[in-house]
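Give me the 3D structure for Arsenic transport integral membrane protein ArsB.
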Amino acid sequence: MIGGFLAVVGIVAAFLGILTPDALVALLDRVAPVLGFVVGLTIVADLSAEAGLFSWLAGVAARFSLGRVWVLWLLVVVLALLCTVFLSLDTTAVLLTPVVVLVARRVGASPLPFALTTVWLANCASLFLPVSNLTNLLAVHALGSPAPLTYAALVLPAAVVCALVPVVAVGIRYRHELAARFPAASVEAAPDRTLFLVSAIVVVLLVPALVSGVEVWIPAAIGAAVLVVAFAIKRRSALRIGLVPWGTLLFAAGLFLVVAAAQALGLAQLIGSAVGTGTSFGDLLRLSGGAALSANVVNNLPAYLALEPVGGSSVRIIAILIGVNVGCIVTPWASLATLLWHGRLQALDVHVPWGRYALAGLGLVVVMLPLSILLLSLAP
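Predicted structure for Arsenic transport integral membrane protein ArsB (380 residues):
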């Protein structure tokens, strides 16, 4: 509903001439590959989950955790990191959340440390590669379209800090729960070995393909096509119209249109006066803090698009990314991944009070933003 409303506002802006035809074409040229990547990767992730790949990975983690909850938790940390970095934060929120909750219940452990680890790493570990977050894919244009590994080198120190802080926080807060033990668990076989193998091969090949420098929508589309063909042959019932994330597409398209219209009306000048123009530690922290505040007021996607024109340099663009990616863990609507995560938890009857979640997220942001910006400002 929100996406539809935003899309209507954007269409009205186009009819009124606020968004010119040239501006619309430029916007489409920029966001179409991003949305194409979202569609392709969502189909890959959903069909891989249908084939039992993610459940098998979680089962392997339980099997090799030696009956210790803290070892299982660390394996979940690794799985969440890999999933977020290479398959995007939304994939982690949508697919990994129910898997880790069910595995935690299977071994008699509290699901809360596993659930919080998943959502915090989904957001905070989404700096590493362009494919890790939609905001990163948008920022690649402003950064001069660097190769994925070149981009990773730019953000690496800040990204490492932002991934470590939530892990340390969960480890300290839930140290007693994580110290428990459980009987050895077995790994369940995949329901269809052929589909499982095809899904595993597609996901494994996607990892190098997404960091190869090829436009990311291309390997995502190829992987999706391969899995669609495999499921059409083996399990046609799994192919449904809902595999395409229509709601996400409408929401993102509406946001892009509205922010583009706001930019045409002078939003950049208004924001620029609030976040400054320098590159010192104080200037970058002010910019990143403003980005975090904007993300929590609206959402991290429009917050990035609104702030990008006041970037002006690679270091300032990265500061904006740190703010919108890492700072969006306070309010539930700041990140689409957080809303998707909460929806999965509700379906599993796991309740996380928003007030407690917001306070914990605020505490993490207060620690992560200054540390990551300090490393960014000290980088050569």
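Residues 2-378 form one domain. Let me know if you want a second pass.
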